[in-house]
Amino acid sequence: MMDQFITLLPELNKSFLETLIMVAIGLGVALVAGLPLGLLLFVTDRGLFLENKVVKSVTGIIVNLVRSVPFIILLVFLFPFTNFLVGSTTGPVAASVALSVAAIPFYARIVESSARDIDRGVIEAAIACGASPWLIIKDIIFPEIKPGLISGLTITAISLIGYSAMAGAIGGGGIGDLAIRYGYYRYDNFVMFTTVIILIVMVQVIQYAGDFLAKYVKKG
Question: Any idea where the ABC transmembrane type-1 domain is (predicted)?
Fold first, then answer.
């Protein structure tokens, strides 16, 4: 078994790195695009300082449309766009396109949900004092939802690990690709069990780190 593991180690290292690349890119895009999108969904809601029914409805519909498509179908659907953007439909970078598209609305809804927990009275008091929308977002909403944002990133990262495994089934690379090529097609149970254990460890580490950071920020 040890000899088999040593033989498999180069492939494991390569697959692990590819998974990290996919998750990191997807998570980065989710943070950059999903955070403002989630805040937009919140501040344009009824009764808030940037209330806009049209913007809220259109944005909500687009977010729900993307979230309603199963990831494996979204991955294939985006092949032409992926090929145009990165010049390929295979590999971790190409798979990151679909991962990013899936992660943006997912994280946006988490951001919106976190913002809904803020006491409306605090926002109303800031408005009464003449605070600008940007000031309210920067100094009231954002600090209040920091722990929720970190917890949301943790959930998103774990979801992206699962999505990356699915992407591996159709040429995305990563641990999912290794499990399919060796564990499924070659009926190698050792590889299958090894990849499952690696995924479990990755999820546990990310969850623990995310929970620790969220608690630290909340105490601060």
Answer: 16-209
DSSP-derived letter for residue 48 is: S
Q: Is the pLDDT score of 1 beyond 70?
A: no
Q: Which domains does the chain have, with CATH numbers?
A: 2-217 (1.10.3720.10)
CA distance 182 to 198: 15
pLDDT digits (tens, 9 = 90+) for 115-128: 998 888 888 888 88
pLDDT digits (tens, 9 = 90+) for 176-203: 888 887 777 777 788 888 888 989 999 9
Q: Can you tell me which residue has the tokens 């149970």?
A: 189
Length of the chain in residues, anyone?
220
CA atoms within 13 A on the CB side of 213: 14
Measured CA distances, 203 to 117, 132, 156, 214 (Å): 27, 40, 11, 16
Rounded to whole angstroms, how far apart are CA atoms 186 and 96? 27
Task: Give long-range contacts, CB 8 A cutoff, 24+ apart: 50-56.
Answer: 50/133
Give the DSSP H/E element, type plus range, for residue 175.
helix 174-178
End-to-end CA distance of the chain: 47
Amino acid in position 118: I
